[in-house]
Amino acid sequence: MTDGRRPLTNEALFARAVDVIPGGVNSPVRAFGAVGGTPYFVARAKGAHVWDVEGHRYIDMVQSYGAVIAGHAHPKIVEAVRQAAGDGTSYGAPTEREVLLAEEIRARVPSCEKVRMVSSGTEATMSALRLARGFTGRDRVVKFAGNYHGHSDALLADSGSAVAHIAAGAAGVPGSAGVPKSAVAETIVAPFNVVPVLDDRVACVIVEPVAANMGLVAPVEGFLAGLRRECDRVGALLVLDEVITGFRIGRGGAQERFGVRPDLTCFGKVVGGGLNVGAFGGRGEIMDRLAPAGPVYQAGTLSGNPLATAAGLAALSLLDDDAYVTLRDRAAWLARHLQDAINAGGLTVRCTVAGSLVGLYFGDREPQDYDDARRAEESTYAAFFHAMLDRGVALAPGPYEILFPGLAHDDPVMSQIVDAAADAAATVARAAGLAPAQPSPAGS
Ligand code: PMP
Question: Does residue 329 share a domain with residue 312?
């Protein structure tokens, strides 16, 4: 692509972007703040690959932070969006596809007896919170340190993802400038993987069932079941934030995998097929408190948008049982081989895996909570990130993000990732004066 006279470069585009967009990006983690350097500007993408404006091709492990699961520009999704667009992009009146998508969500996730579509994960969690408060008549919410639930005021406290780099946060302490203390006065932050003792002031507990914004931290045995029990004991609602895990770690998401039935569930990403979507659903008697059926107000001009519902339905139609087996096998293979390759190169890494999600943690023991996760060697991640980018593999530019192997990451692509990782790790280790790991003696 050109500006009419000379070819575009990432450098030049970023300079222009910074001049007109705060920090040069429309979402903070894209700015490379955590890893240094200039972001690549994507010109196009197909399957497992993205191309930047300079023509470099990368194997893409970001996949729109999980919104893309079937690979970029999947023909079935592209065709669904094209057809929908030809019939009009937004009406302000209900459509059949909204009903079909809600039915599809309920069929996969039976705890969602009723569903409301919104336009982002942030909207889904924010609205679920209001609904939980409206339903219970209580104000207090409990969240877990290192979980990220989008950027609404009440939920930013002690969040993972890119928030980790701007604020410490804590119970009742705003996670960002501009959030009034009063907005988080009723937000309690608890350590992940420990069941907190609740009381009858708590409206809801919101949790990422598999934490995917502090690297990847799986729930320990009994954590989710314990949350369910403790919520029931005090009459609080259990809200699962399945914005990342939903329709990704299995057909019915984390709740199916771990056998826990929440009162409300939040979705985003996969359910929009790469378009702007969020959704939340749950028990009918709770969902019917939403306007216009009930007194809890929630609305959206573009909610249930025709393009987004078309893309979401097309994406879900690709996700049958075989697809989930493929996704799980790929993630398990990738985690095992990445860990071996990087360790052999001389860096100490733990690759965590849950369903089709993979975490990369530079440290010597598997993290169980945010304190552990923050012991990761951020500078090693940054060096490894750049070494991988130099070798044509794009990881997320932040140490608390994860890898999203998808249906387009076939065997050759996966092998290329592991080969690049072995080489990148050796280069980073050498630069840091670390010796490569000795090969194990034969037969051991
Ligand atoms: N919840 C979780 C678990 C997320 O990972 C995210 C985004 N990464 C959100 C909510 C917010 O979603 P969105 O960025 O679409 O607002």
Answer: no
